[in-house]
Amino acid sequence: MPSKRARRHFSQLSKFERGLIIGMKTVGWSRRRVAGQVDRSECAVRNCWKQWTREGTHARKTGPGVTRKISRREDRRIVRQALVDPTVTRSTIRADVGVAIVPQTISRHLAEANLKSKRSFRALPLTPEQRQLRLQWCQARSIGNVTDWQKVVFSDESRFVLGTDEDRVWVWRRPGERYNSPTLFYVTLPAQLV
Length: 194
Prior knowledge:
Layout lengths: L3 H5 L6 H13 L3 H8 L3 H14 L16 H13 L5 H8 L5 H10 L3 E4 L1 E3 L4 H14 L4 H5 L19 E4 L10 E3 L8
Parallel strand pairs: 2-4
Antiparallel strand pairs: 1-3
């Protein structure tokens, strides 16, 4: 791990440090002496002094950053498509937007709108009659004592996939929207199991 001094060389110079560098260099101090005094690299001192002598200012330049590939309107369109149809894929969104962007850009714009790609919650389509029967069964057995419940074995079913398709639907959703109807998919079971 680099030392504290080495790590500081990669951070930006503050306004105070830039003023110190310019003041010490104006007095006639060497670059090495100034770098040791402000605990910065000689390269940082040289660049600061060069900017002062060339432009007459020590303010940091703020660059425009990376140019945007898509406009704000197209960004809103990406988010709207994911909200209207949560099962839409990134490639479909990219084709609809009509701009050559990578899928990671789409994911980043959706993440900024607090939309993440998650597996959809699958639920059994129970009729009100089936729900009532299940509730009655649970209520009838809720009075049992501890020794009765120690005889019950709970088992979990595992799912094994031999192919590449898991037959699961991925949806775009915000946190807390797991049970909302657009992101909820019902499982159809054979009649003898229901």
